[in-house]
Amino acid sequence: MLLLVVAVGFVLYEVQFSSAGQPRGQNGLLGSSEQTGNEKEFLDSDHEEEEEEEGDESHHHSHQHGPDGHSDSSSAGHHHATGTYHHGIAVTDSDACSQIGKDILQDGGTVVDAGIASVLCLAVTHPHSTSLGGVFSCIVYNGSTSSASLLNALPREPSPTPFGIPMMLHGLRLLHQNYGHKPWAELLRPAINLANEGFRVDDPLGRALQNNRQFISSSEGLCKLFCQNNNPTGGLKGVGETVTNPPLGAFLEQLSTLYTDSFVTGRLAQSLPADTDSAIRDKFTAAISQNRPDIEAPLTLRVEELTLYTSSGQTAGSILSNFMQKLSENSSSDSLLLPWMGRRAAPVGTNVMVARSSGDLLVLSLSLNSSFGSGFVSPITGILLSDFTQHGDVSHPDFWACPAVLSVGADGDVMGLAATGGSSVPSSLAQVILNHLFLQMNLTESVRESLAHEHSPVGVTQPETPRGTNPPETPRDTNPPETTRDTNPPETPRGTNPPTAVAVAVEAEHIHVARSSGLCCFHEGL
Ligand SMILES: *[C@@H]1O[C@H](CO)[C@@H](O)[C@H](O)[C@H]1NC(C)=O
Ligand SMILES: *[C@@H]1O[C@H](CO)[C@@H](O)[C@H](O)[C@H]1NC(C)=O
Ligand SMILES: *[C@@H]1O[C@H](CO)[C@@H](O)[C@H](O)[C@H]1NC(C)=O
Ligand SMILES: *[C@@H]1O[C@H](CO)[C@@H](O)[C@H](O)[C@H]1NC(C)=O
Predict the structure, then answer these.
(1) Is 335's C-beta closer than 6 angstroms to any atom of ligand 3?
(2) Atom 1 of ligand 2: nearest residue by CA position
(3) pTM
(4) Would you list the domain boundaries of the chain?
(5) Cα 347 from Cα 525, distance rounded (Å)
(6) Nearest ligand to residue 179 Cα
(7) pLDDT score at 342
(8) Protein residue with least CA distance to atom 14, ligand 1
(9) Where does the secretion signal sit in this chain (predicted)?
């Protein structure tokens, strides 16, 4: 299926670029003649999006929209259906966190300010997919200068403990220092309030809890958060119920006023279990301070009018880039065979995307490796530690994410792309690009079709590797008696989730969003 589409895509591509030697500038991938048509398609696709959203209403519109809600676009003269915005957008897998990002944008924050606040919100409210103990990779694109940078908050060595080296905080801090305009403390405030005053279990978290009942009940720290009355045999909190994490609230509060490297490193190391050997603890502390993220040049590929910026290092960015490179060099489908077969499901993850109509864009992919990471929540800092412990060799990514930004042509059109789904991520993104830019499908269709091949059984044949090397909790495979397990859609093995994809396009001062169906990628915009 994929190869077929690639082959067809390339034929169209060839036709387009060999057509009568027209100057590239006027016959780009999104050439001006196509522009109006695409705009119309976008608007049509938004109606479809809207219908779908209405169907999902109960899932993710339970929060109150502020007085500004979606009304901003009407104040700008004309109104667009949900899915198209004039000023800015924040997309996360949590309604509440997208709203927080949108509020920061509205308040004059940069896309990075908004992204940091959204990520911190997720670190409190979505421990199944991220936490302060996790990792991320992101691309920051500056629309005024048309320049992109990369920040990989990923360890460069294996962890000396069964817990992943926490990379999140140093990464967010560095982002803020370079691209933030709002005071740091202001970006922490919403997350502090959620941790202290409580957040509601939303649908994505509710589903993750159900899918991992046994694991949650057997983890003291997770049970404290999510078991009814802190009783491992009393069932888990359901959607709509409130959860607080006071130690995490207190830690974030400290971070808002006192952020020094040594303080943060020390507190992160204190998040290890109390009985951790002191020599191991020292190694962990050293690993945290040595594995400092840097801002780097992203992996960049130019194909005609198209520039792809994606992540390098131990991420899947080079696979995406190679794929696009081969496509541009040789239309023979032989050369387009994907460098892997089957699908390694882990790690699970989540994506955050923030854009402004100026073309500023943040695409950020996060992970704990497994769902709920290691399962160990520090009673001291409230941090859930990850099980992202390995460090593969260069040829084998250990983080199957490739946050991507595509700039198209000279008009400043730009698109952010991200997906989840383990090793299928680069092929999903390549497919979105082909569908939209080469096959001229509308954005919504491009994104949905990109995952079509994932629904075949081949996508889930690979059983998850046993988590034998992991900390405290042991009996994850014992089959819980609950009946929901059978009534739920086919349960994915721990560490896997249905693949998702999301794209945000900024064109002619309009922002369009398209996402796969399901419990992901909720957008709030202005
Ligand atoms: C966009 O794609 C969807 C899904 O295939 C389709 O139903 C819709 O008609 C498309 N819109 C346009 C304008 O082609
Ligand atoms: C984009 O770059 C320009 C020039 O360096 C800078 O002034 C501006 O603040 C940047 N935009 C953002 C959102 O960081
Ligand atoms: C394209 O790829 C095919 C098979 O992978 C190869 O035989 C052929 O020589 C390549 N053509 C060019 C122009 O590189
Ligand atoms: C993620 O977890 C799996 C299963 O426990 C493990 O095999 C793999 O090495 C982990 N990945 C990383 C990067 O630690």
Answers:
(1) yes
(2) 142
(3) 0.81
(4) 84-198+244-336+345-449+499-517
(5) 29
(6) 2
(7) 46
(8) 41
(9) 1-20
